[in-house]
Design a protein that fits this description.
377 residues; alpha+beta; Aminopeptidase; 2 domains; nine-stranded mixed β-sheet; seven-stranded mixed β-sheet; 12 helices; 36% helix; globular
């Protein structure tokens, strides 16, 4: 297919959403609604056209340089296009040309392409082995030839891989933990979990933990309680919480796009909120997006109960995968994130490595200045 047969131009949010509805999987960060969530940045929907047919789409966030009307064009976990194409230049060059015309000095994207997978047993064995420091020290359960081909093509086309740690504040995780659901029943997924997870789910039921879920307008009355618990969690676990206004915007924007796009879950024990989460789904991909848990009453296992409720609902909705989002690639016992990895490994899923985020400098002096600026922050 000659490059001239593929063009890129702006499309309306309605066109973008309509096209995404025909896809089995796309990141929620590539939905038109996510542009509304990131309202502090200029955003735009792009479409790839072969003649008059829309064949790809992406959400672009424009981050402006200080005091200069030039932008880093960022496509988080996107764009959504044919990443198995023999010649990615046909797709990526017209995108770069268009974005340069919009004032972009560089492009950053996160191809939704898997490169390696490690099953739960492999990760568990790695955690137990003092000689293993990182996921990369383990032989993967699966290597993706398609992913390797994408990485090789990006390098050939002048794209630069970004470091997993530090740098761009909006950077997305390269390593995530996922539970495959396609073709599996609730009983099969439960049987795949480790003994501790199954025991904790059973204990939560025995202790009388009740999980309720809310969508649409029903989320708003619950959101303040969720946020209070989330702030408590942030203080305990030493991370900076997002404000309540962020979650209100997120619920409003995503909820307006599809009725079942976003859902809030609340686990209560004798009327006390012990765990709460936010789940998002696009097509066959379901995510655990945000979570909070109480320091008190941890023994009733509200966190396990609420996760199991989300997984069951994802199965009922016909999802192919339940995504617990980011993990680090470090498995050392002295790593502060090890407990989070162990919690996720208990679900019996798999650690998944994506191709990561890549930059294409369009104006090299400005791109270098931006890179220096971000490193100093």
């Amino acid at each position: 297919m000659p490059p001239a047969h593929l063009t890129v131009r702006a499309i309306t949010p309605a066109e973008h959403l309509s096209w995404l509805r025909g896809r089995r999987s796309a990141s929620f960060l590539q939905t038109p609604a996510w542009g509304a969530v990131k309202s502090e940045w200029r955003h735009e929907s792009l479409g790839w056209f072969r003649d008059a047919e829309l064949v790809g789409a992406g959400l672009v966030l424009y981050r402006q340089l200080p005091r200069v009307k030039r932008y880093l064009a960022y496509l988080p976990e996107g764009p959504v296009l044919d990443w198995e194409a023999d010649d990615l230049a046909v797709w990526l060059r017209p995108m770069a040309d268009y974005l340069k015309g919009q004032g972009a000095f560089g492009v950053r994207m996160g191809p939704p392409v898997v490169t390696r997978r490690w099953d739960a047993a492999t990760v568990k064995a790695g955690i137990a082995d003092p000689a293993v420091r990182r996921l990369g020290d383990l032989v993967p359960t699966e290597r993706s030839h398609a992913g390797a081909r994408v990485v090789a093509q990006l390098r050939e086309l002048g794209w630069r891989p970004q470091a997993v740690e530090g740098g761009f504040a909006a950077g997305q995780p390269q390593y995530v933990f996922q539970v495959p659901l396609a073709g599996r029943t609730e009983d099969e997924v439960l049987a795949g979990m480790n003994q501790l997870w199954r025991r904790n789910i059973k204990k939560a039921t025995k202790e009388g933990v009740e999980v309720a879920s809310y969508d649409g307008p029903a989320i708003e009355p619950e959101l303040k309680s969720f946020h209070d618990l989330y702030v408590h969690t942030a203080e305990r676990d030493h991370f900076t919480p997002r404000p309540l206004s962020y979650f209100r915007t997120m619920v409003e924007a995503l909820g307006a796009e599809e009725p079942d796009r976003i859902r809030l879950y609340a686990a209560r024990h004798e009327g006390t909120l012990v765990a709460a989460t936010i789940a998002i789904r696009v097509g066959g991909h379901a995510w655990y997006s945000y979570g909070a848990s109480s320091t008190e009453k941890r023994e009733v296992r509200g966190s396990n109960a609420v996760q199991w409720a989300m997984i069951r609902d994802a199965i009922a909705a016909g999802a192919d995968v339940y995504d617990l989002r980011g993990i680090t690639d470090t498995l050392s016992e002295d790593d502060p994130h090890l407990g989070l990895i162990q919690f996720k490994v208990g679900t019996g899923g798999e650690a998944v490595e994506y191709a990561g985020e890549w930059d294409l400098p369009l104006n090299k002096p400005l791109y270098k200045a931006f890179d220096v600026y971000m490193r100093r922050r």
